Amino acid sequence: MKITMSVIKADIGSVGGHIAPSQKLLESVKQHVREKGRGLLIDSHISSTGDDIAILMTHTHGAGEERVHKLAWDAFVAGTAVAKSQGLYGAGQDLLKDAFSGNVHGMGPAVTEMEFEERPGEPVLFFAADKTDPGAFNFPLYLAFADPMNTPGIMLSPKLGKGFRFVIMDVEHTEGDRVIELSAPEELYDIATLLRDPERYVVESVWSRAAGTQAVSVATSRLHNIAGKYTGKDDPVMLVRTQMDFPATGEVLQPFSVGHFVAGCMRGSHNMPLMPVKMNAPISWFDGPPIVSCTAFCTRGGMLTEPVDAFDHPFWDRVRGHVADKAMDMRRQGFFGAAMLPMNELEYTGIMERLEVIEKRFTVRSMKKAA
Ligand code: 13P
Ligand code: 13P
Ligand code: MG
Ligand code: MG
Predict the structure, then answer these.
(1) Is the Cβ–Cβ distance between 25 and 51 less than 8 Å?
(2) Is the preceding omega at residue 276 within 30 degrees of 0, hence cis?
């Protein structure tokens, strides 16, 4: 059976700062989707990661279906009213447009969707990150789908050995989707050349070359492109189908043990290591570190199994300790150099106004004329 999996995610308000949505808010979104999604959706799962609420939906209407997008948008609008009534911080933060117009792309919420023919066994991983941006997934996707040091399946399985096709988006281009398709392993160095710059080039999808089927789908929206100013981090979501023609689940999870440095954390303005956390984890220390959760499902006829928490295992406790150490080491450096994002990322924040004033006070020394 051909199904569509759609994830639409937004920050519509949180308790105690940018920490976590309230139970009442989560419940209101759940109730809206449950009631209004009847007859439209096959199944759904609503969860939170930090201060973001993700609505994962299965249906048969394809990607970009207006009714599915409107359902999520309306759930977030209804939730925003609840957030306001509770005095939550940043109520409606990611709803950047007033009126819904066809689909939620470019309106603030993060979207990722995948349409696929279900395999006899259909394992899917749902990743949600908070306090970071879509480039955060470049590193784990490169390792999982292009590096045999991480993914022995590339050597051990003839299907994986045919390689993967990466669709990469230039997220600085705001007039439309500027994309390139590159194939691993032949174009590995070109892929590496782009993915090394995760604020500009972002993996949008990955496809099996042996089967022609889609393995990965990433939400690529950048809020500052929509708002023109800093309104919060993009906090991306990602779907990854695993096993058979694709890397095994463990091969997809392993790169997250590095705790690689990503853009985000406090005020979306720092470089900090990404910490794999349990489902529905809140945010703490220095509005970070940036976090990522991974919920594993299988589907049959679009029906989801119960969620299994892929980062709830003693192994990841050790990783979390290591990431906390890395984060504190970087934090000791305050705003200096690599600890904070480069100017082209900060230019969406209020720092520009201060710089403008300072700029006017600079003088150029005149050289003494030679006698
Ligand atoms: P099982 O034999 O448990 O299915 O595992 C196969 C595999 O490839 C795990 O990476
Ligand atoms: P969010 O994008 O998760 O709302 O975080 C915003 C922020 O500035 C945290 O310091
Ligand atoms: Mg927030
Ligand atoms: Mg957030």
Answers:
(1) no
(2) no
- The string of pLDDT tens digits covering residues 110-156 is 999 999 999 999 999 999 999 999 999 999 999 999 999 999 999 99
Angle between helices 23-36 and 66-85 (to 10 degrees): 150
Q: What percent of the chain has pLDDT over 70?
A: 99
Q: Give the helix/strand (H/E) hosting 261.
A: strand 261-264
Nearest residue (by CA) to ligand 2, atom 9, is: 267
Give the predicted TM-score (pTM) of the model: 0.97
What does the alpha-carbon distance between residue 94 and residue 108 come to, in Å, rounded to a whole number?
Answer: 5
Nearest to 252, CA basis, from 279, 300, 292: 292
**Which of 155, 160, 242, 243 to mutate for ligand 1's pocket (most ligand atoms within 8 Å of CB)?**
243
Q: What b/e readout covers 47-69, taking b as 16+ CB neighbours within 10 angstroms?
A: bbbbbbbbbbbbbebebbbeebb
> Which neighbouring-strand residues pair with 113?
6
Would you name the residues annotated as active-site residues? 11, 230, 233
Q: Give the whole-angstrom CA distance, residue 180 versus residue 60.
A: 28
Strands of 60-160 (E only): list them.
110-117, 123-130
